[in-house]
Each structure stands twice: as C-alpha cells, then as structure tokens.
Specification:
The protein is of the alpha/beta class. Helix content is about 50%, strand content about 10%. The structure holds nicotinamide-adenine-dinucleotide (NAD). Nicotinamide-adenine-dinucleotide binds next to helix 4 and strand 8.
Amino acid sequence: MALTMFGRAIRKIGVIGSGNIGPDIALHFSQNLYAHGVPVVVVDILQAALDAGSKKAESKMAKAVEKSVFKKDEANAIFKNMLFTTDYGKLSDANFVIEAAFERMDVKHKIFDQCQATCPKTAIFASNSSHMVPEEIFQKIENKGRCIVIHYFFPAERNIWVEVVSGKDTDPALVEYLMKFYEFIGKAPTLVKSRYGYAGSVIFEGLLLAAALTIEKGLANVKQADAIAQKALGMGVGPFTAHNLAGGNPITQQGLSEMHTKLMPWYRSPKILDDQVKSGKPWETAGKEEGVEYNPETYEAVSNRIMGAYFGMVCEIVESGITNIGDLEMALDVGLVMTSPFGMMNRIGVKKAFELVDAYAKENPGFKVAEILKKQAASGQPWKIPVVFREDKGNVALVKIRRPKVLNALNEEVFKQLREVFINIQKDPKIQGAVLTGFGTRAFVSGADIGMLALQKTPEEAEAFCLKSLSVLNLIENLGKPVVCAMNGLAFGGGNEMAMACSARIAKKGQKVFVAQPEPRLGIIPGNGGTQRLPRLIGMEKAWPILRNANPISSAQAKEIDLIQEEVEGDLIEVAIEWVNKILSGKVRVPQIKKDPIPVPSKLPEVDIGHLSRKIDSLLQRAILEGAKMTLEEGLKLEAKIFGECLLTQDMRIGMDNFLKNGPRVNANFVHK
Ligand SMILES: NC(=O)c1ccc[n+]([C@@H]2O[C@H](COP(=O)([O-])OP(=O)(O)OC[C@H]3O[C@@H](n4cnc5c(N)ncnc54)[C@H](O)[C@@H]3O)[C@@H](O)[C@H]2O)c1
C-alpha cells in the first residue's frame, strides 16, 4: 500500500538514527501513515540505541492510550508498523528517507552515500540536521533535486513545527509536495531558505546563550535565569530545561560556535556551556513544583537582556530573508512554545523593543541591530503580522486562514485581513474566483475567538461587533466572483457561518464531527448570519434542530442535507479550484441563498435542548422565526441586535465563564432551565 497524494506515492519511510529524536520522528510517521499501509523502518548502527528507541516509542504509545489519544488496537498497529534494525538493506524499497544521526558532516555524508547505493533512484533524501545546509550535506549525491533538510523540534511526534529548508538544487516541485505532505500529516511546516542554523536553531540556541551571559555577568544563577526567561518570554519551559529535555548541549555548543563566524560575532559557546558539555551532566534547573526566588531588580536586569536578545535575533533573521514575520510568529508559538516576538513587540511598543535591542547591542559587542527594526521603530507603526495568506493559482486565488494553535479561530485581525484580501481579489482583473480554506487538517475554522466575544461589554457594543465581522462575510457573499469554501476540517460557529457566505462548500471526506452552531452552549446565539443563512440554504425544518440543539453533524450528513456540495477524498484544494472553474463555465449550478423572506412551516420538528438555557433558546427562536419573515439583509441586522440582547442575560456570563474555565466539554450550569 501507499499514501498517494499530491502527485506522489509514499510506500515506505526510512529514519536513520535511533538517538534522541529519530524514534520520535518515526513514531509520528507511523501514527499518521500506518492506516495507509506505509511501514516505517528505523536504522541505527547500534543495537542498544535501537532497543532504547523501540522501548521509548512503545512507552509513548502506552501513554497515548492512557490519555485516550489512541485506542489500544490502534496503538498496537502503530507500534507494529515500525521496524528497528541495523540492516540498511531494509531501506532498499524506501522512497522517503530522513536522517537523524550525529550532527557531523562526515557522518551525514557517509549515511547518504549508503542511501544512494541502497534506496531507489527517486527516493526523497531528507536530513533532520539542526544547522547544516542542504548544499553541504548532499554534496556527493548525484540527483540533488531530491535532497532537502526537514528540521523537526522536540518532541517530534507532538511538536507540529517543521522547517523545510530547500537547497539551491532542491527541485521546487519537491518543496511544494513536502509542504503539502507535512500539512497533511498534521505538521505546521515553514519554508526556510538555506542558511546555517535556519531560523529555529538560531533562536533556540541563541536564547540559551542570552540566558548564559546573564549568569556569566553575575546577574542570576542557572535556576533564576531559566525561570526568568521562561516567564518573560512565556515559554513552556526555560532555555536550560529545554536543553535538558532535548539532550541538546553538545549540539548547541557546536552550533553557537559556528554561528559566530557564519551569522554574527555575538554568537559563541559561552564558558558555562563548555563546562557543562565537559561534565556531561544536565543543567541544575528547578524541579516542577519548585519555586525560584529572585528580587524585582534581578528580574528586570535578566528579562530586559533576554528580550533584547530575542527581539534582536528574530529581526536579524527576518532581515536575512530566509523566512518572514508571519511564519516565524506562528512557528515560535507552536514550535518553541513561547510568546511570538512580533506580537510581543507590538504590545510593549516597537520603539521600546528597539530600545531593548539597542541597549543589548551596546553591552554585547558583535550583536547586530537589524535595519528593519530601526525603520519600524522610527515609523511609529506596529509590525504587520499576516494570518491570512493569498496564493494565486492561475485565475483562482487561494485564501488560507492560518492560526494552528487555535484551529484557525476568527479574531479581529483575521476579519481585517480577510477584508483586505477579498477587496484585492474583487479588484484584480486576473482573478476570476477564489477558494477559501483553513490551515491544517483538523479545522477549517473552529469558531470565533471566545476571548474576543467575552470582551463585549454592552448590547450595543456586541451588536456593532457582529455587524463589523458580518460585513466581511457579506463582502465574500457578494464578491461578484465565485468563492468555494474548501472545508479542510471542522467548521463550528463563525466557521460554518463563513462557509455559508461562500458560493459553494466542499469538505474533506469522512469527518465525523464537522459542522455545528454551538453558540447556545456558551449562552449566546449565532451572530454572523447562522440563524439567517442556514434556514435559507437548507430549509427551515432541517436548520431548526441544528441551530437549537448545538450538536455537531458529520460531513456525510452535511452532504445529505445539501449544506455542502461534495465530500472529497483526494486533494481538496485541487477539487475546489475545479469547482470554481465549473461554476464560472456554468457546468454546475450551486444553491443561491434566498435574499427574500422564506416560508416557515406551520409545524416545526420537536427539539430536545437538554441542559441549554431556555432564555437563550427563546432569543434564538425569535432570531430564526422573525428573521425568516424579513429580507436577508434585515434578518442579519435583527440577528446582530438579538445577539446583543444575550448580554442582558445571566446565562451569557455563565456560559462564557464556563467555557473559558472548563473548555467546551463541560456543560454550563445555566439559570434558565
Ligand atoms: N535532539 C533534538 O531534539 C534534535 C532536534 C532537531 C534536530 N536534531 C538533529 O537530529 C540529529 C540527531 O540528533 P539526536 O539528538 O537524536 O542525536 P543522538 O546523538 O542522540 O543520536 C544519533 C544516533 O545516530 C546513530 N548513528 C550514528 N551514525 C550512524 C550511521 N552511520 N547510521 C545509522 N545511525 C547512526 C547513533 O548511534 C545515535 O543513536 C542531529 O543532526 C541533530 O542536530 C536533534
């Protein structure tokens, strides 16, 4: 069997190296590809490393079963799909090989020599080096077009960031394929140009250096610097703890030394890192529950320096042109689990950020202040951080919402950028239609950002807030060019409302939990057209329970009731583009949302609303039934007004607070039952 997708077939995967990270990379492949019958082979020269790798994979799967991430039989199948061996011959039919052995050029050269002799001529060769550029790793490979660096992050089976680093000879079609492939298997890939350390390692290792220098300066000890960096940058764990977890000291020592000549002179291996590597011991960081004490002066002195170094590094990286603000902002959040830098600079003020970097550069010879930061600070403007991306595919613009951490939830920035993008599409004579989609495989749009909804203080404010985002949906609906929604995952609340504003909807096949209007669970009603467009699109009788009971329906059910036009098994985007062209040529007719009042049947189906608020349900019924008697335009305004009225109920506060505190699974204890 194989995974045949995006014009290629992956039949067998090889992972070379069963050390810290190799088994985790293999486990991720196996979790995502076992169902397609794609086996994963892990090769190492040491049997002991293979045994340890296999044991680690097995225990990670056992934990995943405990946490109900996988069922027991799935976990068994995933583990059995992996083979741990010293025999390179087992790679003779592997058509995608990724190397995760020692961070040494001679070792990587030897391994790929062996792969070239063993694997099919067209096999993809990737290295998970943390620093080395593809041009050097694959120097001796005949067909360099198939060679690339794919840089994973700890823990590789769960961390969704991968850097896709193409070399000057890498085939652009392979790069395009791998970007799609990695998104398909649940990663958030960013494309990075070839430069030593790429973006991720430079920041990961640079932060350890910045923290180490505060220690060498006598400002803090390891525990303090670790805890302060963690707090100041909102990191999952501090830089020293992260190095303990990833076993990264020797690799960082080597990396920082090379960056000294290759990137900027400030980078170097600090003495305390050299000593630590010599000792072979982990850093003495605080235990999980252990509090670390420091006074406010220590916090300020250390955090200012760490922020200065952080902002300075990311600006230098963007200025180098290897990546961009949008990618880095997303990647550092999901991959290094820390507050994204450009948003953070916007919050404290870019001028203040520049001052921190400037002060850092004055104290640290060889630290560069990027020109882009100087310019931005002088402009008095915040950084522009893209979350909506447009890519033109011939006459069709592909628009993608990308906020993977919150499953592409809608916030003000998303609406603002969607408005800009769609206005440009409307004006662009080369573009005849658009595809609207979300990043990844889990969600098209998970809904509106709940934090943003909870900020609305008065009914008038809430009504205005709805009308503002609604105007973006109205723009999409009345664009004058077809917009096909490619629903790559679930669409809840505002996600479904946005999809309904499109000319047609197609979805990834087999989604059990696909579409819902879950607003009543939060003590509100839909505020972006759900109560108006859904009955107009699928009829009042079918819309009635979906709107009132807040339960999700599957993609198969959505197709049955004509909410979507097609369930797609293959490349969703390709099919969506075909739909745009079919609509343009008149080959298909798509349902039009009626702009006039619609009939309401004399008897509507009974709906069991369970624990949901009766008060909110009565507001919801009013929006649906009164809206049906109006034009769409009037109905949408009425809905926004009634949405505002929800703020006058106790149940809205109860619903919102419950959601923010307990998440979507716990039922709110509404007053009006
Ligand atoms: N550890 C991390 O979190 C991390 C993150 C990103 C990238 N990386 C990169 O991944 C690679 C591996 O890192 P690691 O931390 O797992 O290293 P490691 O030293 O823990 O493991 C390397 C493994 O490679 C094996 N090996 C060496 N030569 C081999 C050969 N010729 N054939 C097969 N196996 C061979 C070794 O026996 C060892 O088990 C490095 O290039 C590193 O820079 C590591």
